[in-house]
Amino acid sequence: MAYGKDGYPTEYANKVGHVRLIQDPMIQSLIEAFEDHQTPIDESVQQPTGQIDIDGECPIEQIITVDGGHQAVPNKIRPERQVGFIQVASQLIKTDTIEYLREHSMADPRHVRAMLSGFTHHTFAALPLIGVHIPGLSVRRSIRETIHRFLSHYELYDALSYLVYRQWETNPTESPSMECIECEVPFELPRYARNFQCPRCGERHRLSDYLGLCAEDLEDRPRVEVVSNFRSVLEALVLFSLIIKFRERSSIMERTLFLLDGPLLLRAQLSRLVEPIRALIADQRDRGLPLYLVGVEKSGELSDFADACSGSLRNVGEFFLPSTQFIVEEIHGRAFNENTYRNRVNYGAKTVVRVGANHILALNVPTGDYLLTPNANDLIGFDVIVRSLSQLLNYSYDNALIPLVLANAEASISNRPSGGILAQFVDRILDNHE
């Protein structure tokens, strides 16, 4: 790690530090193997698991896409003061509109934006981080209060309560519990309560505290992690608030594809929502109600693996559905033990599908309960999802889909210039309050 500037010259890395490194025999042999692009004789090419008839029936007429972006912005004069900004967009687009855009590829972007603006909903949030807090509250309590205010303002408590308390169950099989924010003693949540007290110390809690975003010592956690985790849960709550709202209306659900930019996953303490989400999806399936939900991984290890599968998945509709053991060992490079392995973060099975001659996607498709070795029939709505995605192809970027490109334009927050503009915004507000 180099010393920073702050009035002194920057400490630069050694310009010849690589010489000893590349002369080491073990390093040389490792790099030679790394740079060998030919598949070893004893490694078989991954064969397709199956193939979907792309020309089959596809009832999808509209796509609801959810995407988000975030930035942690420091104060220019006092970089120890930071504010995190989050923007989540949910956008509905009709397949007729996509066909229009395909036929009018040179349409004025302002006209396209005007077409979609009435069908795009934004969720905005800002979190106080280092050195910024609500007057009279610590940073930790300021974050708790801010999270509560945004969930309340955007009416996301309804979806959160529905999931946490499994309100679709007449006789819930499980009671949610959490550790007290103050005394860390576990206790069960009162049924349907959004405000409650710790039975031991009396600390007041809100249902937003169940998410665990402030459950650990913030001093030991990367500040950006709090922002990214809040963004993840906002995306999930926005997505499932729509699914919950329409889940009983088959006429809407059977023609709607719910598309998430990213994996169907909630990490760390947010994984408390994963089991209820899995149970809700299983209930939807068991009741014979339609649900077409998919997450698209545009980057990361599964996406890289999908690129490597392009030679073996040659025909449109072919897919590879790996087991959990294959994912853990071959894609993530970790040891796998079936007897001890537990997955508490994913609510979708991972698969790689060729949806076009030049498009191969890394997808997450829900199965209800988590399965170590899923088959194609376990992936809910898989055939329809793949057929729908094959009609949404875009060539602006590698493996791009039209709804994801449009939603990303509404949700993403670039480091420059957006990050710089937000930094000036923060500076101006903080300066006015000093």
Q: How would you sum up this structure, described in words?
A:
It is built from 14 helices and 15 strands. With 434 residues, the chain is α+β, with helices and mostly antiparallel strands. The chain has one domain. Strands 1-11-12-13-10-9-2-3-4 form a 9-stranded mixed sheet, with helices on both faces. It has a two-stranded antiparallel sheet with strand order 5-6. Helix 6 packs across helix 7 (223-246).
Total domain count:
1
Our Rg estimate from Cα atoms comes to 24 Å
- Name the strands of the widest sheet in spatial order: 1-11-12-13-10-9-2-3-4
Individual helix count: 14
**First CA to last CA: what distance?**
34 Å
Order of helices and strands: HHEEEHHEHHEEEEHHEHEHEHEEHEEHH
Into which percent range does the helicity of residues fall? 25-40%
State mean pLDDT (0 to 100 scale): 85
Question: What's a concise summary of this model?
Answer:
The protein has helices at about 20-25, 25-35, 95-105, 110-115, 140-155, 155-165, 225-245, 250-255, 275-285, 300-310, 325-330, 380-390, 400-410, 415-430; strands at about 50, 60-75, 80-95, 120-130, 175-180, 185-190, 195, 205, 255-260, 295, 320, 350-355, 360-365, 395, 400. It has one domain.
Relevant terms:
434 residues, alpha+beta
SSE layout:
Blueprint: H1 18-23, H2 25-34, E1 50-51, E2 62-74, E3 82-94, H3 95-103, H4 109-117, E4 120-128, H5 139-153, H6 157-164, E5 177-179, E6 186-188, E7 195-197, E8 204-206, H7 223-246, H8 250-253, E9 256-261, H9 274-286, E10 293-297, H10 301-308, E11 318-320, H11 324-331, E12 349-356, E13 359-365, H12 382-389, E14 393-394, E15 400-401, H13 402-411, H14 415-432
Parallel strand pairs: 2-9, 9-10
Antiparallel strand pairs: 1-11, 2-3, 3-4, 5-6, 7-8, 10-13, 11-12, 12-13, 14-15
Helix pairs in contact: 6-7
